[in-house]
Design a protein that fits this description.
By secondary structure, the protein is α/β, with parallel strands linked by helices. The protein has one domain: TIM Barrel. It contains twelve helices and eight strands.
Length: 299
């Protein structure tokens, strides 16, 4: 089966003012830079987009903004992390009306379901909506582990077209290939496993830290597609300290700080998150500024 989606689909931050209100013009400016870098799609209101701290009307406003900016250039997906099956279906129907091309669906984070409940949730959402769905598996952060066996069980639901695999175990890529073949477009969601996952065989990358370095991010992806592994390794080694910022509980703050340092956004976050401070801030700024001092020239 040919992948429904492929390429770089960055998870985009939601830009905020210092008073925590939405800054849609700033979000739109960043989206234009990402599109110009060559991304294949946009994922709004995911974990990096601070989904769970946004009010329902704010999430819909962010999706409307992204759809208007993207036009017909790239598909726009919305993260879905609602607390109930009914709310997830209602939200998907709303973003479809707004013009979203699909969604990235998480299991409800407020409840750790068992495998039977997880499968039932995904099937109910698939049957209750008309948009194509990328399933997001992140057991490290969100407790529910959607195993290759569960993905095989869900394979008869046509709405499921892609998987974002973020277990942190590169062996999962091969296990998924063995369990489901090419049934789904397979995306990695762990930035600092991109090269390893590419060698094992993926269709796309839900990029995080790279939204602050979009041209380098796209270049790295293109090198993996072209099999230019020596060049990819060189760029990856420069990028790796930045990519690792996506695998920390403060990843939203870290990546927004990256955006601020590269002029693509500001660091303001929605509480209960707070901008990082003290030694932690200095350490992360040191990583970012060291990377900027040695930033490679990317055509």
């Amino acid at each position: 089966m040919k992948p429904y989606w492929s390429g770089v689909f960055p998870a985009v931050t939601t830009q905020l003012a210092q008073d925590e209100s939405l800054d849609l013009p700033a979000t739109a400016r960043h989206l234009e830079v990402l599109i110009a870098s060559g991304v294949s799609g946009l994922i709004m209101c995911g974990s990096l987009g601070e989904n769970q701290t946004l009010a329902p009307e704010e999430k819909r406003a962010v999706i409307r903004c992204a759809v208007e900016v993207a036009g017909n250039r790239v598909p726009v997906l919305s993260g879905v992390a609602e607390s109930s099956t009914r709310a997830a279906i209602e939200y998907i129907r709303d973003v479809q009306k707004i013009g979203a091309s699909g969604v990235m669906l998480l299991p409800p984070m407020s409840y750790k379901g068992d495998p039977r409940e997880t499968v039932a949730f995904f099937r109910a959402v698939a049957k209750g909506s008309d948009l194509p769905i990328m399933i997001y598996n992140n057991p490290i952060s969100y407790a529910n582990d959607i195993t290759p066996a569960l993905f095989a069980e869900l394979a008869n639901e046509k709405a499921f077209v892609a998987l974002k695999e973020s277990s942190g175990d590169p062996r999962r890529i091969t296990e998924l290939h063995n369990a489901v073949g090419d049934r789904y477009a397979l995306f990695t969601g762990v930035d600092d496993l991109l090269l390893e996952a590419s060698i094992l065989g993926i269709d796309g990358w839900v990029a995080g830290s790279g939204i602050a370095f979009p041209h380098e991010n796209q270049r790295l992806w293109n090198l993996t597609r072209e099999g230019r592994w020596d060049e990819a390794r060189t760029l990856y080694r420069w990028f790796q300290p930045l990519l690792k910022l996506d695998t920390h509980p403060h990843f939203v703050q870290y990546i927004k700080l990256c955006e601020q340092e590269t002029g693509l956004g500001v660091e303001w976050v929605r509480s209960p998150r707070l901008p990082i401070a003290g030694e932690e801030r200095e350490r992360v700024l040191g990583i970012i500024r060291q990377a900027l001092r040695h930033r490679p020239v990317v055509a």
